[in-house]
Amino acid sequence: MKQFCMSILLGIGVCMSLCAFAQSTDLVNWPAQADPRLIGDLVAQRFVASPHNSFKPPAPPKNITYPEVCAWYGALKYAEVSNDQKLLTQLTQRFMPLFDTEKHLVPRPWHVDFSVFGTVPLEIYLQTKNKKCYTMGMRFANAQWSIPIDSPQVVKDGYQKFLDKGLTWQTRYWIDDMYMITMIQSKAFQVTGDQHYIDRAAHEMVVYLDTIQKENGLFYHAPDAPFFWGRGNGWMAAGMSELLSSLKKDNPNRPKILAAYRKMITSLKKYQRPDGLWGQLIDKPESWVETSGSAMFTYAIIMGIRQGWLDTEEYTPIARKAWIALTGYINKDGDISNVCEGTNRKNDYQYYLDRKQKTGDMHGQAPILWCVYALLKR
What we know:
Elements: H1 2-23, H2 36-49, H3 66-81, H4 85-95, H5 112-115, H6 119-128, H7 131-143, H8 153-163, H9 177-192, H10 195-212, H11 230-246, H12 254-271, H13 291-307, H14 312-327, E1 339-340, H15 349-353, E2 357-358, H16 362-376
Antiparallel strand pairs: 1-2
């Protein structure tokens, strides 16, 4: 009889525990399948085992591309927050051949999508103090504000107009720029303490916000592609989060960036779907669920809660629901599905709906790791 009662009590305890998970509104207690450490281990090790540029069709990679950089960076931040020295060693060892046997894979820093590569060696330097990584990373950060000397004069003249305004010559007014530029400049500030790196990133962000943010806080893919594409907006949300995390409170551009961030997150709250995620086209409920943009939004919201930019009571349930939903798209191998393929701008609604949905694409792997870092950071 006593054993029977104990079984009943244990059963009640399990049910109560499951109910607590279901009803919980915090960012600490998770059902097993959504445990950030479990997800972090799974996705980070998937990255370690992946060949360079594995999201592309089988072909020798020409250079390391930005989705791999973003996933690499996410894995490094997970290693840091989890104090996983083995993972840090694995991620560092993956990088070292780029100084010799794989140096042909190092991109030239002549484009925003290539310049963000410098974020990885700078993060490795922060965690290991490897001077070679510092030198390489700073070369990329400095190159964003230095016109390539081998550029034709007519090209230099076109670039100079941006430098004269305090902007990088790589300025395009494309939404993903505001992750690619702010990441490398923020990281350069973190490793050097030199204020001008973060100041110029903040100035760049304000100019972009003034130029391309819409009244509802969101961003068109491009002026000639008037659609609120999910991942494109994700780059902006994540970029503002990264910049605000490093920006001092007395920076004159900070209030404007923070207001723009909050305006965007308020709009994202409105468009969050009942399942917790967001669509390929944010404001079009008929568009399919897209996980890379959803993960970027989730990361930005978690960061806002952690940093005090957002009301905890209002936004924690939103972040929690999104994170649990995202983990449902991750398979046993650590690959997330429903990731939009690489997408150029096009003034065609159906074009966005018809984009292929990929599994394991690093555009999606990366922000999952960012979310893990944000959830575990205290």
